[in-house]
Design goal:
Length: about 200
């Protein structure tokens, strides 16, 4: 079991709640995501995040592993987005919930059109305290963007999988529905800056 050394922080409360939730073997991803989002909203403050969990990277967004369940049921990470940084269009291996701590993010969602090309289906603007979630059965092809030209954004992500096994495929909008590349891990597949682990033990 890996986590930052902060047992009284909102992170610990979130992790405890996730352990309790996932011990109930909920098989409905929508229900699971709704409950996770409710718990995550209580943790959407920057004051408990250690400085290393707020560090950015110049060329792409930066991911920091905050906690990973030893059984592989879930992981929690902080993501730091400098102005204009974004993920490519991608999907996930399981459910995921995102909450914004600082700044603003946009979640752009996609689905194949009748010709098999990806088309944008919705855009969700996320301000501090807001959450959104996706899971494969409901269609989870998306990208996340920091639309600001001046402000850095910080978000907390909870995934129903180990941190390095979250992403599945990356897609090219200029081509067709076929994945542009398989993603063996979050670290190299979506070209994020290498994840920094804040774990101890």
């Amino acid at each position: 079991m890996r986590h930052i050394d902060a047992t009284q922080t909102p992170l610990w409360s979130l992790v405890s709640g996730l352990n309790l939730l996932l011990s109930q073997d909920i098989d409905d991803d929508a229900v699971c995501c709704a409950v996770v989002a409710k718990r995550l909203r209580r943790a959407l403050r920057a004051d408990w995040l250690p400085p290393e969990a707020r560090r950015s990277a110049d060329d792409t967004y930066q991911r920091h592993l905050l906690y990973e369940d030893e059984a592989g049921r879930f992981s929690v990470g902080s993501f730091v987005w400098k102005p204009g940084q974004a993920t490519p269009v991608h999907d996930h291996t399981g459910w995921g919930v995102v909450g914004v701590v600082d700044g603003e993010l946009v979640s752009e969602n996609f689905a194949p059109d009748p010709e098999g090309r990806l088309a944008q289906t919705s855009v969700v603007a996320l301000k501090p305290g807001a959450t959104t979630w996706l899971f494969p059965a409901a269609g989870d092809i998306h990208r996340i963007v920091n639309p600001s030209t001046r402000n850095t954004a910080i978000s907390i992500h909870v995934y129903g999988a180990p941190f390095a096994a979250v992403c599945r495929n990356r897609y090219g909008l200029e081509t067709n529905m076929a994945p542009a590349a398989a993603l063996p891990s979050a670290a190299d597949g979506i070209r994020a800056a290498p994840a920094r682990s804040l774990s101890r033990g």
